[in-house]
Amino acid sequence: MRHLLLALPFALLPVIAHANEHHHHDHHDHHDEHASLGSHEHGVAQLDAALEGTVLEIELRSPAINLLGFEHAANSAEDKRKVADARAQLEQPGRLFGLSAEAGCKLDEARLESPLFAGKGHEHEHEHEHEQHDAGTHSDVHAHYRYDCSTPDALTGLDLRALFEAFPGTEKIQAQVIGPNGQQGKLLRANQAQITF
Questions:
Q1: What is the largest CA-CA distance in the chain?
Q2: Helix-helix angle 13-27:2-11, to 10 degrees
Q3: Residues 6 or more apart whose Cβ sits within 8 Å of residue 169
Q4: 3-state SS assignment for residue 178
Q5: How far is CA 70 from CA 28, 75, 102, 160, 176, in A?
Q6: Distance between CA atoms of residues 177 and 98, nearest Å
Q7: How far apart are CA 32 and CA 35, in angstroms?
Q8: What is the pLDDT at residue 163?
Q9: When you count CB atoms within 10 A of the terminal residue's CB, does the N or C end of the chain come out lower?
Q10: Phi and psi for 106 in degrees, rounded to 5?
Q11: Ranges of H-type helices in the chain
């Protein structure tokens, strides 16, 4: 299954490029003109989802500033509270992705990785710290979730409105999905936050 998620950015690159191109003509946002899939752009996150059989995998990659409001190491009590709050929300993905209850999806695995998170579940933390140090002051958050769904046919898509509400620094999500009806990509915003499988 993981190979499906890894293939998504390449398989849907033309779809996302077209969505971004269409968006440029509508709004002429200079940040969009420089967006590229997988780049570190404030306000923009990437989400890949694959539904195969009863298994649903979701990966979310975002600049830390979208989720925390900053990217530096949390030194103050306020910053540490923001990190703890964001981590607590990311550890409850059922609230963020709008999975239909009828699908009976149970979380099998959740992994959160960021140089800004400390403690359990961060086996690759030092590796990421070095990568981030080399890349400058930009820090990213990577979340991976694996669900087992008892009735996958009832899972028609994802609704990310709660994710946009929880993390208002996230303005856009470049979403890519593979499901029973093939693959698609879509640029999501708070007012257009649904994507179907």
A1: 48
A2: 50
A3: 42, 43, 65, 66, 67, 68, 69
A4: strand
A5: 26, 11, 37, 22, 26
A6: 15
A7: 5
A8: 97
A9: N
A10: -110, 135
A11: 2-11, 13-27, 30-33, 64-68, 77-90, 93-96, 125-135, 161-166
C-alpha span between 48 and 7 (Å, rounded)? 10
Task: Please report, as a single letter, which amino acid is at residue 67.
Answer: L
Residue 111 contacts by C-beta under 8 Å, 6 or more apart in sequence?
121, 143, 144, 145
User: 172-179 and 105-113 as β-strands: parallel, antiparallel, unpaired?
Assistant: unpaired
pTM for this predicted structure? 0.74
Region 90-110 average pLDDT: 95
Which value, in Å, is the radius of gyration of the alpha carbons in the chain? Answer: 16
Q: What is the mean pLDDT of residues 88-99?
A: 94
Express each pLDDT in 128-177 by its tens digit. Answer: 443 433 344 668 999 999 999 999 999 999 999 999 999 999 999 999 99
Could you give the CA distance from residue 111 to residue 115 in angstroms, rounded to a whole number? 13
Q: Both tokens of residue 111? A: 């992994």
